[in-house]
Design brief:
Distance between the termini: 59 Å
Pfam families: Phage_integrase
Radius of gyration: 30 Å
Protein name: Integrase
Strand content: 5-15%
Keywords: DNA integration, DNA recombination, DNA-binding
CATH topology of the largest domain: hpI Integrase, Chain A
Oligomer: single chain
Largest sheet: 5 strands, antiparallel
Number of domains: 3
CATH class of the largest domain: Mainly Alpha
CATH superfamily of the largest domain: Intergrase catalytic core
CATH architecture of the largest domain: Orthogonal Bundle
Number of helices: 21
Helix content: 40-55%
Order of helices and strands: HEEEEEHHHHHHHHHHHHHHEEEHHHHHH
């Protein structure tokens, strides 16, 4: 089985592990901090192992390296080369403990016995899930079939016997092995057989967050853009708040609703109500996921965490007349002092946002190949086909026709001055690069300056208001909700999704917009 080199480097620090959830457990090790002059300075770091399923592609193991307060340092992924869960668990243990290599690398029998004694001590001091023993026993059995010496057979026999004792919770004989007072055979025969008691596996909030995100990735539920945003909200905002309340390493079954209220109060100090409620929804989703995975012994404590927002909802749309004035200002009066290549094209960015309702990032990443024509209808294709392009979610991929004359938009000039002047199909039509593609602050300054000089223009308006304006316009003109959803890239309702799954054709969508 081939492993990636990052895994081998991480396992070089492996000193044993504490079992947690069968899909996420951790190992703590001391790592020398090379950034300090004192070579003895150490910091506590963790490696989280997540066993996940990619459906038809089988199981894989995800290793996430975390530092102080759960800060994500690095990660890597290794295929376990199987679609069977029990085999995947065995393969993962094989990778971590390198049992087969150990069985053939001992110098003499005394070294083998020392390893068994150390292993027995580990089993006494750390709880293991049932699949741990089954996986190890399976690997040991396979290893014994290819053993080439008496010493290897003897080691594997003793190893299996030690595992069996631990699996059956027979602590006294395990202590005898760890102290090397009795042989394994004597321990097995002189001990009283005790009923095996399965211990509930534990998992803390940091582990739960990591496992939750990894499963979202494995199931392709989050796009690259969504993943980027959600990693921040989960792995930074939530972990920091749980850490501030000293709950980040607490077993999730020990967390109460009052604890979550404390977390909410901590977040409320720096977040507005709407954002705070989004983070509370994230916490609710985490505990729902834990419940689905049967990690909770009782009901979820994440109940009614949202708080009522007493502030009146801000009207974000721009009236049609005011929007028309703003678009004309951008084309006729606005001057950008920058010598950047994109400066002459800023007016077209605003025009496209106004007539399509597309998000700023979606417009700025448009390439020449994304301006297409079908049945004489010119439209933009919003997709992630090009390297570096991202979408907010799966429903964001869509096509939107360009309406000649809307808000003064001149389709002929746009094609001649903007699209046709691009050299290659992969060129950004607004002459942006990967470095200059995010010009959010620039448009913030444009809107701020315009609002200062035009009292009738909504003071709450931003670039994203152009998207709200399109939605409001469609609503007031009586456009069917399914059509508006297709235009804006919103998820459809169940009714539309079930009975209109074939979608809206481009010509019909063009005529409806016109």
């Amino acid at each position: 089985m081939t492993t990636q080199s990052p895994l081998e480097r991480e396992l070089g620090h492996h000193k044993g592990h504490q079992s947690g959830h069968l899909a996420a457990f951790n190992t703590h090790y001391g790592k020398t901090n090379s950034y300090h002059s004192d070579s003895h300075t150490t910091e506590k770091t963790c490696i989280y192992f997540s066993i996940l399923n990619r459906g038809s592609k089988g199981f894989y193991m995800r290793l996430s390296h975390r530092g102080h307060k759960g800060i994500h340092l690095s990660s890597c992924t290794i295929s376990l080369r199987t679609n069977r869960r029990n085999v995947a668990m065995s393969n993962s243990e094989y990778l971590k403990d390198a049992l087969l290599q150990q069985a053939g690398s001992f110098i003499d029998f005394d070294e083998m016995r020392a390893y068994i004694r150390s292993f027995a001590k580990e089993l006494l001091t750390t709880s293991k899930p049932d699949w741990f023993y089954k996986g190890h026993l399976m690997v040991a059995q396979e290893a014994q079939q290819s053993a080439t010496s008496i010493e290897q057979h003897e080691f594997l026999n003793r190893y299996k016997q030690t595992l069996t004792l631990a699996q059956n919770q027979q602590h006294e004989p395990l202590m005898a092995i760890s102290n090397d007072n009795l042989s394994l055979t004597e321990s097995m025969t002189t001990s009283n057989t005790q009923p095996m008691i399965k211990k509930k596996e534990t998992i803390n909030m940091v582990q739960l967050i990591d496992t939750y995100i990894n499963e979202k990735i494995a199931n392709n539920e989050w796009s690259a853009k969504t993943l980027e945003n959600r990693k921040t909200s989960f792995r930074v905002t939530l972990i920091q708040s749980f850490t501030a309340c000293e709950l980040h390493e607490t077993d999730i079954n020990a967390i109460t609703r009052n604890d979550l209220i404390r977390v909410r109060d901590t977040l409320a100090e720096k977040l507005k109500t709407s954002t705070l409620n989004s983070r509370m929804s994230d916490i609710t989703s985490l505990f729902s996921y834990a419940d689905m995975c049967q990690l909770l012994t009782n009901k979820s404590p994440a109940i009614k965490l949202n708080i009522k927002d007493k502030n009146k909802a801000v009207d974000k749309h721009i009236p049609e007349g005011e929007l028309n004035k703003f678009v004309q200002y951008m084309h006729n009066d606005y001057k950008h002092n920058s010598k950047q290549d994109f400066a002459p094209y800023l007016k077209w960015v605003v025009s496209l946002a106004a007539i399509t309702g597309a998000r700023q990032a979606e417009i700025l990443q448009l390439r020449k190949a994304d301006i297409r024509t079908i049945d004489d209808v010119v439209y933009i294709s919003i997709n992630a086909e090009h390297e570096g392009n991202t979408l907010k979610n799966a429903t964001s991929e869509r096509c939107v026709p360009l309406i000649d004359g809307a808000y003064g938009f001149n389709l002929q000039h746009f094609m001649k001055d903007v699209v046709s002047t691009c050299q290659d199909n992969s060129d950004y039509i607004f002459r942006l690069t990967q470095a200059t593609r995010s010009i959010t602050q620039l448009f913030s300054k444009v809107f701020k300056r315009y609002k200062e000089n035009n009292e009738s223009f909504p003071k709450t308006a931003t670039f994203h208001s152009l998207r709200h304006s399109m939605s409001t316009l469609c609503l007031n003109k009586g456009m069917p909700e399914a059509f508006t959803g297709k235009l804006l890239g919103h998820a459809q309702s169940i009714t539309y999704g079930r009975y209109g799954s074939s979608g809206v054709d481009m010509v019909t969508l063009h005529d409806e917009l016109k």
